[in-house]
Amino acid sequence: MFLVDGEGLHSQLSQYNDIESLKKQITVLGMLPFKQDIPIHYMSKTRLQEYLAVRFDADYPDKLSEKEGEFIWLMGFVERKIDVRRVRKQILLNNVGAWYNSKTKELLALYEYRDIDFIHAMVLTHELRHSILDQHFDLSALAGGHSDFDDRKLGVLAAIKGDTTFLMVQYSDMNADILLSSPDGDALFSYAPIIKPSLLYRKPIVLKYQLLMPYVEGLRFVNAVFKKKKWKGVNEILHDPPESTEQILHPDKYFKREKPVKVTIRYKPEGHELFHSGVIGEYYLKVLLKPKNSLFLRDYANGWGGDTFHIYKKPKNKQDASNSYFLAWESIWDRDKKVNYCSHFHTDFKRFIERRFNVNFKKGKVKGVNFIAGQSQSGEGYFFLVRLGYKVFYARSNNRKQMNTFIYGGHYD
Question: In this predicted model, what pLDDT tens digit does every residue of 123-137 receive, in sequence order?
């Protein structure tokens, strides 16, 4: 997906190649051929937006957006519940000029893309490379059925978008290192037609970073692979894609195949059903703990080893309209002789919970385990946090009885 116009981009509009020549150049540059030709259909902006709206509604059902909205609210990514579906759809429909449809295997573009100038060439290069990757690797299968706010999917998306953006940068004869010189990717967005900054104005930061991360950190990752293994290495990435954003943020961990630790939560609150589950991961934890007054993401989640979260809800019925929920999250942290990553994260996370939810934690002890627990002074429920060696366990619920049952049962070991 790429934008309609080049807000703040290069002004040069010299004529580039026709579309068939562009396809040939992409296969030569990226050393990966088309398995079959990709048809291109041109249409008006209105028609393209209508088409994308239909696809968006089909690919992003209400049930999934409800789960994602509940997750980002309960974890504290946003201060109040938001209509995730509406905001994401608004951004998509106002930020596209060309789009590769992985289901119909065709490329859709605005009428003006028939005249290939500098900006159009960049956009088409990106989308055509996307179609090549799909022919070789079946991108939908690679991304799996995970939520867009799941670390496992974000890692794969970063590898895909990083590849297509890297080829676009190479084709445009730009220097990836220069474009990545700023931590937040400002230089990249100033020169490449990725997204109009105005569309992200006052949007929740978790949605902003979810959208931008695959391009910025993905490009940084693929650039590192290219420096080490050239195009041969780049074209091998999706044969063995990253399993976490940790591998994207730290390419050496990808080269060493340092896999995330699988974490299992055994506890299930009585009378509740699993509503949603997933992995938060290093990148989203950095987003979560980002201070409002900070311009950039900080390394709050260095040393992340693995995690998982479960959201349980009590089925609604006429006898009980309490809408009881229970969030459980467990994370494992790397062991290091010099740095206690788990302790550092626990301290930062505790401070975040206290400030975000106005919680006054009190110390407690059950079955020899020291923990902290407290109630939100702003009516946002009950909270529990414990660090056990290299593990952090966190719980939140609006059901005091259920929280006490959890705490005194010692179900967090």
Answer: 999 999 999 999 999
